[in-house]
Amino acid sequence: MGYGRLGEHEPEHSQPEPLTDQPDYNTSPPRTTKRKLLFSFSFAFILASAVSVSLLVKFRTTGSGESEAAIRARVAVSQTCSITRYPTLCVKSLLDFPGSHAASKSQLAHITMNVTLQRFGKALYFSSAIRNIKMSSLVRSAYEDCLELLGDSVSHLSRSLNSAGSTQDVLTWLSAALTNQDTCTDGLAEVRGPVRSVMEERVRDLGKLVSNCLAIYAAASGVRNEDFSGVPIGNRRRMLSAGSSPGSVPRFPRWLSRRERVLLDTPVSSIKADIVVSKDGNGSVKTIAEAIKKAPEYGPRRTIIYVKAGR
Ligand SMILES: *[C@@H]1O[C@H](CO)[C@@H](O)[C@H](O)[C@H]1NC(C)=O
Ligand SMILES: *[C@@H]1O[C@H](CO)[C@@H](O)[C@H](O)[C@H]1NC(C)=O
């Protein structure tokens, strides 16, 4: 049954065929060569199949023997990560960690926190390295805020990792670290220059890692009443007081975000107002009440109402 297949692949097999068209006296010698050829072909075929079978067996054993544990670890890790908002980052950061291959669900939550803490520590360490370079006061303020926030997050994460509190405490600490990260990146987004790029590179993925931590920790501790699985980053902001150095009088209240503080520091002439209230009719509306009624038309973003002086 294998011969036909063999004949198809081997061009020599068809070679003797045209010989049958030759006169009769020429038939006997080709027949013996044909038989010889057939014999050697079948021998080669048996040899080849033996080799391929042994190769297959070898491949199977090395395949299953070496990677079965790795496959199981990958499955466990990707199941754990599937509930997070950034699963690819989650899988990568977990699989890179020694010991994750034989970890249970709660151990994976622990490892995620450990990985995240280590990344925050590294970011803080490398960010501090540029402390002495020259920066404008705005850049300096964003930079110092980030250092302070990173330090704060490191302490939150290490407390969480060392289980120094209840589940609710840990959720609160992780949420605080997430908010810190958003505040830092928000502050950086408002300045320009090389310090911003360096810092953005240093803190990249930190918020996503904390978000994943929250999701995995909440799931591992059976927290269901609140949804931590899809905690987005980028919409939380911690309110920092402007004058963080001791003794200085804060110019703005604590609840005012950085963006608002920057806005209030900007000269009126360079602010583009959405609505201008002017009694003389030169603005978009004449009264403040009208302006407030109009504000929702500008959507959920901040609406700037400029009230012109006058009476
Ligand atoms: C975190 O991971 C490191 C190894 O990278 C390990 O030495 C350390 O003990 C871990 N910390 C905790 C609290 O598990
Ligand atoms: C309002 O605009 C008009 C012309 O557009 C100008 O003559 C007038 O002085 C403006 N009024 C005020 C109070 O700026």
Automatic annotation (TrEMBL):
Question: One Pfam family from the UniProt entry?
Answer: PMEI
Q: Could you name the domain of life of the organism this protein comes from?
A: Eukaryota
Where's the Pectinesterase inhibitor domain?
A: 72-216
Q: A GO BP term, please?
A: cell wall modification
So what does this thing catalyse?
[(1->4)-alpha-D-galacturonosyl methyl ester](n) + n H2O = [(1->4)-alpha-D-galacturonosyl](n) + n methanol + n H(+)
InterPro entries for the chain? Invertase/methylesterase_inhib, Pectin_lyas_fold, Pectin_lyase_fold/virulence, Pectinesterase_cat, Pectinesterase_inhib_dom
**Region annotation (Disordered) ranges:** 1-29
Q: For this UniProt record, give its keywords in alphabetical order, as a comma-separated list.
A: Aspartyl esterase, Cell wall biogenesis/degradation, Hydrolase, Membrane, Transmembrane, Transmembrane helix
User: Which pathway is recorded for this entry?
Assistant: Glycan metabolism; pectin degradation; 2-dehydro-3-deoxy-D-gluconate from pectin: step 1/5
TM helices/strands, residue ranges: 37-57
Record keywords: Magnesium included? no
| Keyword hit for Lyase | no
Q: Which GO terms describe its molecular function?
A: enzyme inhibitor activity; pectinesterase activity
User: Which CDD domains is this protein grouped with?
Assistant: PMEI-like_3 (cd15798)
For bias kind Basic and acidic residues, which ranges apply? 1-15
Please report which protein family the annotation says this sequence is part of: In the N-terminal section; belongs to the PMEI family.
- What PANTHER family is this protein classified in? PECTINESTERASE
Protein's recorded name? Plant invertase/pectin methylesterase inhibitor superfamily
**What species is given as this protein's source?**
Actinidia rufa
